Structure formats: C-alpha cells, structure tokens
Inverse folding.
C-alpha cells in the first residue's frame, strides 16, 4: 500500500467562536443577506457588476461588528465598500446597520479573508484595504497566526491599484513594530508618514468603542498607512 499525502491544515488568523444570534440578526441573515451578502465559492468577483457602478472599491478585512465600516460607507457615498468577516453576530449587526442607514454602497463576505483576496479579488482592483485591530496573538508560539505577514502583504500589493493605500492599526506595540518592519521591507509600498514613522489617526477612521477601551487600559493605538507605488 502506498501512503496518501497528508493535507496540511492551513493556519488561520482567527478562531471561530461565536454566541447565538439575536432575533434581529437572524432576521437580517434571512432578509438582508440575499441583497448585501456575497456567497463565497472561490469565484473572482466582478466588482463593478457587484455594486452596479464603477466607483472605487475599498475593502476592510475583519470588520468585527462593522462600526468603522458602516461609518465610512455612510460618510462616502461616492465610494464602494466590501467587508470580510467570519463571525456571524458581527455580520448580522452590520446588516441591520446597513438597513437602518439605507446604504447601497456596502457588500459583505463571510469567509477567510486570505482566501477571498487570493481567489476572488482581481489585480489592481481595489483603491484601498483596511485592517483595523487584528488579533495580536500575543503569545510567541501563536505569532504564526498573525494575519499581517509577508505573504499577506504580497497579496495586498497585487490587489491594490497604483496610488491606493493600505491602512492598518493596532494597540499592541510589539505587533505594530512587526507590521512596520514587514511593510517597510516591501518595495511596492511607501510609508506616507516617512520611513519608520506611524501616522496620526486620520479622520476617516472612526475611534471605536474597542479603541476607547484600550486607551483606558493604557494601550495607545498606532496607525500605519502605506501607499502602493
């Protein structure tokens, strides 16, 4: 008998732990997901067809409960926003927000962001990518789970168009330094604040409850904004 090659389990940047959906979130998935949700099947997305226009598209990876994404989409109706998240309660919360604010420029995907970028986003098709407060996986043995790594950044350089930006933020100092090292070493990106410098929080990134809580605990946020050559 010949041994079958084992399939190596991919390293995920998240652990799927979620509570029950509220009745409102259940309704959102039943009635709103067909309109604002994008089912992932590994297909490459036609973004103009998806949104029904040719407005620039900005993508947020891991939007949590969607607080920042909702505010940005509401403040910029001339831009389209695509959000990726795996946790259903957060998606349901954002779907209800989309309905409440009557937004037409926001679509959501429930799947692993690394796979979505690799399989579904075309070359130079995004005006920008946001990654706000990803899990720092603070224990050293878990650092391999951090989503921002050289392979992820290489994918960003492929999907972000010339002149577009990648904006990430974290309140974990050691992770911020690692992010800075990886992005600085990427020749396709230029730090808009200057080499090795963090950016002040721009007005378009709302300060979330999560960030306010971190400030009370003495964890100041650091923003990194890099432009694609």
């Amino acid at each position: 008998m010949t041994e079958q090659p084992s399939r190596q389990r991919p390293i995920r940047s998240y652990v799927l732990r979620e509570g029950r959906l509220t009745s409102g979130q259940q309704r959102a998935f039943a009635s709103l997901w067909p309109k604002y949700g994008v089912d992932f099947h590994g297909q490459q997305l036609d973004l103009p067809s998806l949104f029904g226009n040719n407005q620039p598209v900005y993508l947020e990876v891991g939007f949590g409960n969607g607080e920042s994404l909702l505010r940005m989409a509401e403040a910029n109706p001339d831009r389209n926003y695509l959000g990726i998240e795996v946790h259903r309660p957060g998606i349901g919360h954002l779907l209800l927000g989309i309905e409440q604010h009557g937004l037409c420029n926001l679509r959501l995907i429930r799947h692993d962001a690394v796979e979505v970028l690799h399989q579904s986003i075309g070359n130079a098709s995004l005006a920008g990518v946001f990654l706000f407060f990803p899990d720092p996986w603070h224990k050293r043995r878990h650092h391999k789970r951090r989503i921002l790594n050289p392979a992820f950044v290489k994918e960003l350089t492929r999907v972000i168009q010339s002149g577009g930006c990648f904006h990430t933020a974290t309140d974990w100092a050691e992770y911020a330094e690692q992010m800075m090292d990886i992005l600085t070493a990427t020749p396709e990106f230029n730090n808009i604040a200057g080499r090795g410098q963090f950016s002040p929080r721009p007005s378009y990134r709302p300060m979330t409850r999560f960030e306010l809580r971190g400030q009370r605990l003495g964890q100041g946020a650091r923003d990194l904004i890099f432009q694609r050559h």
Notes: DSSP finds nine helices and eight strands in the chain. Residues 47 and 57 are 8 Å apart (CA to CA). The first helix runs from residue 23 to 31.
